[in-house]
Design brief:
mainly alpha, 12 helices
């Protein structure tokens, strides 16, 4: 239903299956009483319940925690953390600075979109079957890059062995999408040694094995860098204003008119 009919059907009411706050009485979250039934729930468990509508086991929640922890770098040089640091340097508020840094995390190459593209690729690859994976990978490469493989700064991703170790400890390292992701890496490295798996492919594979869809993955990864942002903001705010990443004029590649003399005004009698 489109047009005026859609507006009329929604007028004076808010239809929802997600929940509702009955102020002064209770709050419902995905069909459950937030205080009576969910008050002891781990925050990550509540977050993914809100995204997926599904409850996850304790080992699964521990793995999802680890995916966030292992990529929380408090390094202000990283593109989104730099936004948080600059916000602190100009004395913005934590809410505005962190929100801006999270918005920067939606980058096409580095941020949220690679996770979405990677999990979409892995789900389709798993449905295609590992037996015909070589042909599937060739067809994907013909259309462009395969997100989740290759890294601009270094071909080795230092996060992978630690996360894989945690998945192994939790017995969550034997899913079909993770097997596909590792086999894709083997195929790509044969063509280019720099196309090793990066964090997007590993995180997407593990989440796909937990049943995440691309849309659910997009929501889940939003705060993945969050824990590293506040330290950058705080440290920058402790310094003198404007002293985070200042650039001298010597760093500017100026290609305009050359330096020239301005005529002096004639002296007044």
């Amino acid at each position: 239903m489109n047009g005026p009919e859609a507006l009329v059907s929604s007028a004076d009411r808010m239809s929802t299956r997600m929940g509702q706050a009955f102020v002064g009485t209770r709050a419902v979250f995905r069909g459950q009483d937030l205080h009576a039934e969910l008050r002891h729930l781990d925050w990550m468990a509540l977050y993914v319940l809100g995204i997926t509508g599904r409850h996850h086991t304790e080992p699964q929640i521990k793995l999802l925690h680890a995916l966030w922890v292992c990529t929380s770098y408090p390094d202000a040089r990283i593109w989104n953390n730099r936004t948080a640091a600059l916000a602190g340097s100009v004395r913005s508020t934590p809410g505005l600075g962190i929100a801006a840094a999270l918005a920067m995390s939606e980058a096409t190459i580095y941020g949220g979109h690679p996770y979405v593209s990677s999990i979409d690729f892995l789900i389709r690859a798993q449905q295609h079957g590992i037996g015909a994976l070589n042909e599937f990978v060739d067809a994907e490469l013909a259309k462009g890059r395969i997100y989740g493989y290759g890294r601009p700064i270094a071909s080795i991703d230092e996060r992978l062995p630690w996360v894989l170790g945690i998945a192994r400890e939790l017995r969550l390292d034997d899913g079909p999408h993770l097997h596909i992701a590792l086999e894709v890496e083997r195929l790509l490295v044969q063509c280019n040694p720099k196309l090793r798996m990066n964090y997007a492919a590993l995180m997407s594979a593990l989440c796909a094995d937990l049943g995440f869809s691309p849309t659910e993955m997009h929501h889940f990864q939003v705060p993945v860098f969050l824990a590293g942002m506040s330290p950058c903001f705080i440290e920058a705010a402790e310094r003198a204003p404007g002293t985070v990443f200042p650039m001298s004029c010597a760093h500017i590649a100026y290609e305009g008119p050359a330096e020239r003399r301005w005529p002096t005004a004639p002296s007044q009698p």
